[in-house]
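hiii, so i know i said id send this last week but things got crazy w the move. better late than never?? heres the sequnce for the chain we talked about at the cafe, plus the structure i predicted for it. fair warning i was half asleep when i ran it
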Amino acid sequence: MSYFQILILSFIEGLTEFLPVSSTGHLILTNSFLGLEPTEFSKAFDVIIQFGAIAAVLVIYKERFKFNLDFYKKLFIGFLPAAVIGFLGKKLISDMMESTIVVAWALIIGGIVMIITDWIFSRKSQENKPVDFKNSFLIGLSQCLALIPGVSRSAATIVSGQMVGLSKKDAAEFSFFLAVPTLTAATLYKLWKIRDIIHTEHISQLVVGTVLSFIFAIIAIRFFLTIIKKYGFKWFGIYRIILGVVVLFTFKS
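okay and structure toks below
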C-alpha cells in the first residue's frame, strides 16, 4: 500500500465516518477504484484508522466525556446490541465487505429512507426529548443495520434518534458519542486479529492513516453540523442514491 493510497483512504474515512453516507461503503468502493486487493491487512487498515475518527470526537466533545456515570451507562446500553449481533454475525459481515453491489443497493435504499424521513420530520414540530436509557437502546439497536456495508452507522442512528424524538442536532451528536465505544471495540478486535501479520512498515502506515483520519474527521464533524442546521439530511440522501446508481452501472461485483 503506497502512501498516496493511504492518503486517499484516510481522507475517505475521516470525511465519511460521521456523515450519513457510509464510510465502510465508501472505503470498499475506494479500494476497488484504487485496485487494492482485499487482503487481511487492507481490510483491517480500513477499520483501524477509525481510531483517528474516535479521537476527533473526544477532542471536539471533551467536556461531554468528562466522567458522568449516567452518560456512560447510556453509551454502554446503546453499544451493546451492535456488539452482540456484530460478533455473532462476523462471518456473514466479512463476506459482504467485498461486495460493491451490496454497497450500491444499501446506498440507494438508505438514501430513499433519508429523504423520506427528512421530509416527514421537517414538517413536524421538534419534540427534542432527552436521551434516556430506552432511547439509547433503540438507537443502539439501529446500529445493527449498519453492519451491512453501505447502510451507514451514522445514518441509521440519526434517523432512529429523530424517530424517538431527538432534535436533528441531538440525534447527530448522540450518533457521534455512540461511535466512540462502537468503533473502539471494532478497531481493537481488528488489531488483535492481525497482530501476527503486522510488520514495521505496517505500523508506520497505520500511524499515518490514523493521524490523517483524525484531521479529516474534525473538519467533517464541524461541516456536518453546519449543513444539517441549514439544509437537513435530504441532500445526503440524494448523494447516496446518485452514488449507488453510478456504482451499479460501473462495478460488476
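btw The longest helix spans residues 200-231. thought thatd interest u
miss u guys!!
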